[in-house]
Write a structure and sequence with these properties.
single chain, alpha/beta, 157 residues, three-stranded parallel sheet, Alpha-Beta Plaits, elongated, 8 strands, 6 helices
Length: 157
């Protein structure tokens, strides 16, 4: 028995009744933070009403990610941070190859920040400003959704 647990992740999803009952019992016995899985919007609303602190909908989240990837062409991976900002994985633009991060002036020209670079079997999670882009590089960037869309359009996708 765990004494004084602060957080509990409840992964019951398909059995809605068990999910609701377990969430209610966990909150009643004093679990401070209950994260629960919901299978539908109504299931989510019920979990919210009985006190679940965080509700995840993995199927819905994955559907949104797949849809974003399909309509975004050149974007390899997409993580929505808010309605306005995202982290995306994009291939390096041809015009950036053999230029450094600082020379491309990505922050000022495109409103994005490079937070990681993957290529040639390596992952650099803190690239230096003097890093020279290579043809096989994939960039992980963060920025405003509108700026990312404009960059994707510029990339011909």
């Amino acid at each position: 028995m765990i004494s004084n647990p602060y957080l509990l992740l409840l992964a019951i999803g398909n059995d809605i009744q068990s999910s609701i009952m377990t969430t209610l019992i966990l909150k009643e016995v004093g679990i401070n933070y209950v994260m629960a899985k919901a299978t539908s919007d109504i299931h989510k609303r019920v979990l919210q009403k009985i006190g679940a602190d965080k509700i995840i909908q993995p199927e819905l989240d994955m559907g949104k990610r797949v849809a974003a990837a399909l309509i975004s062409g050149g974007i390899i991976e997409h993580i929505q941070l808010s309605n306005d900002y995202s982290i995306v994985e994009i291939p390096v633009l041809d015009e950036w190859i053999n230029n450094s991060i600082i020379d491309t002036n990505l922050r000022n020209r495109y409103g994005i920040n490079v937070i990681a670079i993957e290529g040639s079997g390596r992952l650099d999670i803190s690239p230096r400003p003097d890093y020279i882009f290579k043809k096989d590089d994939t960039l992980v960037v963060v920025g405003a959704n509108e700026r990312i869309k404009a960059l994707n359009k510029k990339n011909g996708r």
